[in-house]
């Protein structure tokens, strides 16, 4: 009887011992699993533009002043310190603050920076530009930190538009940047993902003054070119006078090409003004050919020469006006 009782006690003791051993070894593993599966910390991020200025299409840059803020529960992580501006040439941080709102940390900072931009100038000076302000987390990947867009508070001041432009729309979106490398992390894989956020601002050139300043010499050159078809005396073309007018028109076109390059830089696509320059240049060459032809064909009859010149002059005038309307209406 005592032997049976002793065996029973031994069995219970063994069971208890194995149970405690299992708990001792398994609990750390469970805890580690729970830590590794902890969800990423989320921070609500927003931007507010106070000023856009120094638009430089020749250098491919613009400058902006803006506020950025974050709201999250973590008191140790500060995404405003670990984020980077993807397309910036350099930024300055000012007036950084951290305020507790219950169990939330509200952080904000003012950013003053210069940003790179690929300007599409094919419709200049009736162009519309889309600016992209992109921020990206630079330390923690998606498994540890995620952005959430604060769409309700993101925006811009009504006076934030650069001179000669107006802001027509803005939106903010959250995304992911994928890199095909673990950046040497021994615990990482072959790739890594980082949260990012992009604010898109649409700018529209608001003033037609730039177009008039650049197009005025063109229209003057075209007028000289057209008038040259009307210079006659006794039914004969005034070749010297007409060549003088055409030389003046050519000089105006060359100067206008240079003026556009000074405004936009030498490396740019053909703009509306460039196309008009080319058309006027073609008209000048055509008028020169007609002048020489008229001087030669006058011997065949004054009436024929005048008739030829008037027809050519009408063709030049009508085609130039039609091409102007096509370009401007299509751009606007």
TrEMBL record:
InterPro entries, A to Z: Neur_chan_lig-bd_sf (IPR036734)
Transmembrane segments: 208-231, 243-264, 276-296, 308-329
Record key words, sorted: Membrane, Transmembrane, Transmembrane helix
Keyword hit for Kinase: no
Entry GO terms, CC: membrane
GO MF, one example: extracellular ligand-gated monoatomic ion channel activity
Name this protein carries in UniProt: Neurotransmitter-gated ion-channel ligand-binding domain-containing protein
Species assigned in the record: Paraburkholderia humisilvae
């Amino acid at each position: 009887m005592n032997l049976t009782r002793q065996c029973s006690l031994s069995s219970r003791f063994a069971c208890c011992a194995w149970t405690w051993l299992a708990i001792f070894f398994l609990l750390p593993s469970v805890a580690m699993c729970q830590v590794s599966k902890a969800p990423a910390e989320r921070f609500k991020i927003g931007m507010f533009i106070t000023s856009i200025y120094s638009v430089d299409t020749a250098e491919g840059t613009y400058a902006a002043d803006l506020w950025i803020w974050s709201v999250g529960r973590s008191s140790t992580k500060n995404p405003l310190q670990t984020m980077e501006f993807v397309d910036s040439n350099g930024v300055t941080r000012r007036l950084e603050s951290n305020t507790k709102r219950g169990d939330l940390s509200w952080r904000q900072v003012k950013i003053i920076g210069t940003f790179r931009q690929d300007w599409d100038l094919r419709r200049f000076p009736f162009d519309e530009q889309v600016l992209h302000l992109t921020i990206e987390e630079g330390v923690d990947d998606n498994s540890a930190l995620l952005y959430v867009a604060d769409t309700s508070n993101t925006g811009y001041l009504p006076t934030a538009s650069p001179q000669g432009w107006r802001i027509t729309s803005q939106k903010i979106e959250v995304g992911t940047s994928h890199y095909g490398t673990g950046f040497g992390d021994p615990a990482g894989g072959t790739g890594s993902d980082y949260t990012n956020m992009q604010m898109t601002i649409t700018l529209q050139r608001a003033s037609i003054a730039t177009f008039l300043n650049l197009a005025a010499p063109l229209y003057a050159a075209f007028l000289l070119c057209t008038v040259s078809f009307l210079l006659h005396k006794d039914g004969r073309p005034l070749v010297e006078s007409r060549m003088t007018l055409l030389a003046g028109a050519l000089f105006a076109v060359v100067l206008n090409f240079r003026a556009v390059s000074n405004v936009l830089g030498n490396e740019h696509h053909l703009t509306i003004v460039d196309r008009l320059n080319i058309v006027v240049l073609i008209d000048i060459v055509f008028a020169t050919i007609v002048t020489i032809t008229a001087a030669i064909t006058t011997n065949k009859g004054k009436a024929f020469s005048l008739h030829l010149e008037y027809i050519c002059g009408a063709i030049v005038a009508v085609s130039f006006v039609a091409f102007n309307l096509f370009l401007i209406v299509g751009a606007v």
